Amino acid sequence: MTWYEAVFVLLAGMGAGTINAVVGSGTLLTFPALLAVGIPPVLANVSNTVGLAPGTAAGAIGYRRELEGQRGRMLRLIPASLAGGIVGGVLLLTLPDSAFHAVVPVLILLGCLLVAFQPWLSKWISAPSHLHRGAWWVIPAVFATGVYGGYFGAAQGVLLMAILGLGLDSNLQRMNGLKNVLATVVNTASAILFIVVHDIDWLAAGLIAVGSTIGGFLGARYGRKLPPIALRALIVCIGVLAIVTMVF
């Protein structure tokens, strides 16, 4: 990797860390960047996951104020994300990506629709405004999102925000903080698995780790200042961009 390619990957990591803290889908910046500098797809995917793990942790730390009072929720949902991340990582290492890749745009589109219409849908689905613990389907949905996140992860945040916004009783910024914690668990679980059983491009992973950590703190600092309607619009826009990028 040349010096200018290294700078390119570092900047992609910064952008991904910022986007992941606010919305998710940072993989759509870093994964193509690694492919562009000549890293093979599977190696790029696992190296990208390892590199983004510190950045998602930085975003979660940056949102620690919004996590106050959510300890019970985290204890209920973290095991689902942990299990999902491990399962998704195993699938990446053992299965061809053709079938799963065909489903990904559909999942992202569903997530965008759920986020966009969450204020209206939440009145109909399980009456979450009366349930502090959340709707019954939140835990299995978080597990399924963890599987997807461990496998590839683009727009994992969009899907998580849709699930948490519909199934839990809280505001969007607090859900964003919780989303960052769950995404950190997924990325860390799958990253550890990849480190143990697969080769890693450590230069690429290190550059992304540094960039995404910086971006994670920046995203947390400025993301919490967005009003709910702006955050919701940003989530939908990133999701649509993810669909267009993956399809075309």
From TrEMBL:
One GO term describing the cellular component: plasma membrane
Q: What is its main location?
A: membrane
Coiled-coil features, chain-numbered ranges: none
Tell me the domain of life: Bacteria
The family database entries (Pfam families) matched by this protein are listed as: TauE (PF01925)
Q: Where in the cell is it found?
A: Cell membrane
Q: Which membrane topology term applies here?
A: Multi-pass membrane protein
Query: What stretches pass through the bilayer?
Result: 74-95, 102-121, 141-168, 180-197, 203-222, 229-247
Keywords attached to this Swiss-Prot or TrEMBL record, sorted alphabetically, are: Cell membrane, Membrane, Transmembrane, Transmembrane helix, Transport
Family note = Belongs to the 4-toluene sulfonate uptake permease (TSUP) (TC 2.A.102) family.
Name the chain's protein.
Probable membrane transporter protein
